[in-house]
Amino acid sequence: MSFQFFNEDVVLPELNFEKIVRILKGELRVHLVLLGSINYIFCSDNYLLELNIKFLKHDYFTDVITFDYSEGRVVAGDIYISIDRVMNNSVIYKQNYSDELTRVISHGLLHLLKYNDKEKEEIKIMRQKESQLLKKIKFHV
Questions:
Q1: The listed CATH number (3.30.10.20, 3.30.70.270, 3.90.226.10, 3.40.390.30) that belongs to domain 2-139
Q2: Which neighbouring-strand residues pair with 66?
Q3: At a CB cut-off of 8 Å and minimum separation 6, what does 94 contact?
Q4: What order do you get walking across the sheet with 2-7 strand by strand?
Q5: How do the domains of the chain map onto residue ranges?
Q6: C-alpha closest to that of 24 among 82, 86, 79
Q7: E strand or H helix at 3, and its extent?
Q8: What does the pLDDT look like over 64-119, one tens digit per residue?
């Protein structure tokens, strides 16, 4: 199966998707799982807000929503990412836009790998894993 990248109501971001996919596939191997179909859908704040309200009953903006379709050891899902929110967060947290976007891409995959971010300790682990993946993506040759 594969990683695929789509856009809804925004322009597809300019990233080295081949490099990102190579690192993400490596992360799947580390977790001893198989790749199903993982779709990244880049969209606007309003598009993602509608999904957040409809499916999660949350009436607020977010940077990423992950729908997990994994079965057994096969990891699959749809990961929606708000380009607006990522851009806004990159300014707020004083991060490079492409780094913040890569962090959110990693975050979505980590949710499919069963990492959560509701409790304080879970958030700490999630941030560590995001940072590890970001470093690999940025510096991997």
A1: 3.40.390.30
A2: 79
A3: none
A4: 2-7, 34-43, 74-82, 64-68
A5: 2-139
A6: 79
A7: strand 2-7
A8: 999 999 999 999 999 999 999 999 999 999 999 999 999 999 999 999 999 999 99
Between CA 38 and CA 53 the distance in angstroms is 22
CA 58, CA 41: separation in Å to the nearest integer? 19
Task: Name the packing angle between helices 97-112 and 120-139 (round to 10°).
Answer: 120
0.70 exceeded by pTM: yes
As a whole number of angstroms, the distance between CA 141 and CA 137 comes to: 9
Phi, psi of 32 (to 5 degrees): 55, 40
Q: How many angstroms separate the CA atoms of 38 and 82, rounded?
A: 17
Question: What does residue 88 show for φ and ψ, rounded to 5 degrees?
Answer: -60, -45
Q: How much is the pLDDT for 141?
A: 44
> What is the C-alpha separation between 76 and 84, in angstroms, rounded?
25
User: Could you report the per-residue pLDDT of 13-41, keeping only the tens digit for each?
Assistant: 999 999 999 999 999 999 999 999 999 99
Q: Which residues in 9-138 belong to E strands, given as ranges?
A: 34-43, 64-68, 74-82
